[in-house]
Amino acid sequence: MEDYPLLTGVHAIPPALLDLRPSATIDAHLLHPPPVTTGSPKNIWFFWHSGYAHMHPYTQRTVRAWHRRFSKQGWTVRVLDRHPGSPGNIAHFLDVHDATLFPRAFRENTLTGAYARQHTSDLVRWPLLLRYGGVYADVGMMQIGDLDALWNCTVGDADSPFEVLSYSPGGEKLYSLTNYFLAAMPGNALFERCHRLLLTLWAAEGGKTSTDGMHASPLLKGVPLMGGEHTIIEADGTFIGKEETSRLLTDYIIQGQVASAVMGLVDEQDGWDGPAYCVEHVYALNFMVGSQYINELTAWDGQKAFDLMSLPVPKEGEKESDDQRGAREIVEGCLTRSFGFKLAHGLILRVNKVTLGSLWRDNPGSDVVPGTYAAWLRHGIEHWTQDAVPERLELSLIPPSRIGRLLGETEQQ
To answer: Measured in whole angstroms, how far is the alpha carbon of residue 119 from the centre of its chain?
Structure first.
């Protein structure tokens, strides 16, 4: 095992609380997810369309680290899929033909578009959390902070007012959450309304097969579009301006737009006051430092992040270079200040071209080369935890973005 320096504010997890069995043994467990135990909401859900065995090695390492860290504290990690015959097929956990759970395109397996697989995973997270509770995370979500400790003093504590855990990218002007990390008990009031609204958007025009155009729904009125500062230059030189890029990003992350709409909605007939709910019941985590710190320190330059993390840590007696100092600041900052880190993929690659996640994917094993800063980060994530849980962002009570019925004048048919 590499001898990396333990940092202030971080302590080693006792070996008895870690699953240190060989990776092949853990993989065999992850390939056969057990049924949910009645009354146990300590579920950690992932989804990969073709199953854990077909995930990229660096995302397998990420999921494996979740299991090593939290399984002995009562958490069950499951990677679900839609692969025929797979023990992890979501049909073993939810009725994939139920129209109250999934839109027609999911039920009939007719999702279209370049991001159909991402939107398939979007469609499973609220149904899983509403039925079973726990945490849903993307396979690219590296968990750093002590999830069990934060859960136990918030959502998992019956005396706590907090019912939802997520990162909050909207600041003080917009209620929002990130769909790459969601946590709640079964039947959560916010997620139940979010799910109904999302299904309604998918049911438009007789049943949509992609999210194209969903940003324009009047049910999302009052919520600003996403990514207003971004542009896209395609590989063939085609330029896509800010307005069209914003529409593309909003359609791509339509689940986040739906969440913001419900969080900002006041539906008096339903007894729903979204702003009040957010202030009282959402434990909002810092977005940038909490889950995007590497991007903040590298100005979202994926190549720079990859190059720094690939550097070797100086051996004893060697002088630290400027780049090594920058890499060290990344690792030390993440391990001491971040609750997690989200490796980005998908549409963001049309904006930024490469990300740390895409380069780890395209260069297998580059995230665990012994003696590198990447390997130091991986080691810290698996074997250390922070001394304290992250503080909650205090959400201010802001005016509702929309007042009216969740689904408009008529309920979904």
So the answer is: 13
| pLDDT for 160 | 98
Assess contact for 147 and 202: CB atoms under 8 A. Answer: no
pLDDT at 413 over 60: no
Residue partners of 122: CB distance under 8 A and separation at least 6: 179, 254, 255
Tokens for 162, please give them: 């907090």
Q: Which long-range contacts (CB under 8 A, 24 or more apart) does 354-361 make?
A: 354/302, 354/303, 354/306, 355/302, 355/305, 356/294, 356/302, 356/305, 356/306, 356/309, 357/58, 357/140, 357/302, 358/302, 359/302, 359/303, 359/306, 360/58, 360/306, 361/56, 361/58, 361/59
- Determine phi and psi for 219, rounding to 5 degrees: -70, -15
CA–chain centroid gap for 200, Å, is 23
Q: Which residues pair with 286 in a beta bridge?
A: 168
pLDDT in tens, 365-376: 999 999 999 999
Sheet holding 76-80, edge to edge: 76-80, 43-47, 134-137, 181-184, 164-168, 282-286
Q: How far is residue 337's CA from residue 295's CA, in Å, rounded to a whole number?
A: 14
Section 270-282 average pLDDT = 98
CA distance 155 to 183: 8
CA distance 179 to 289: 17
Over residues 177-191, the mean pLDDT reads 97
In sequence order, the β-bridge partners of residue 12 are 384
Residue pair 383/13 in contact (Cβ under 8 Å)? The answer is yes
Span 194-218, pLDDT tens digits: 999 999 999 999 999 999 999 999 9
